[in-house]
Amino acid sequence: MIPMTDSANNLLYRAQQLCVTRAVRFTPIRQQIFLLMAQHNAMISAYDLLAQLQLLEPNAKPPTVYRALDFLLEEGFIHKIESSNAFILCPHFGEKHPSQLLLCKSCGGVIELHNTEIEELLQSLADEHGFAITTKTVEAHGICADCRE
């Protein structure tokens, strides 16, 4: 089993409870991927997750990870970082919220913002152009405060 920090353990418990409420299957593999992401403080690719999972499940293959990631995305547990095809755990899962991501090019860290004004402005601009938004990903790339020091 993966050693867990208190925060990872709390996140897992919350996710388990939410899955019970939603009547969806939070399989052991899905939980393992969730925990790997909960212990990772930066964006992570599916193949990096696969490499970590294979330390515990040597027969794990890419489709296993991608299916788990699809589930975690669908349930709102993670965000996909489109520009780098990576993923990050969303500690605010279970609550509907706007999300914008600040991505550090140096350390790979991600700061998640929840600005409703950005969300409303984007929707308003889309409406003005008769555009129906089906997927929203707002990403800004730069250097975080820690890396700039």
TrEMBL record:
Pfam families: FUR. One of its GO terms (biological process) is regulation of secondary metabolite biosynthetic process. This is Ferric uptake regulation protein. PANTHER family: ZINC UPTAKE REGULATION PROTEIN. GO terms for cellular component: cytosol. Its cofactor is Zn(2+); Mn(2+); Fe(2+). One of its GO terms (molecular function) is zinc ion binding. Fe cation binds at residue 119. Belongs to the Fur family. It is found in: Cytoplasm. It comes from the Bacteria. Zn(2+) binds at residues 104, 107, 144, 147. Keywords: Cytoplasm, DNA-binding, Iron, Metal-binding, Repressor, Transcription, Transcription regulation, Zinc. Binds 1 zinc ion per subunit. Homodimer. The lineage of its organism: Bacteria, Pseudomonadati, Pseudomonadota, Gammaproteobacteria, Alteromonadales.
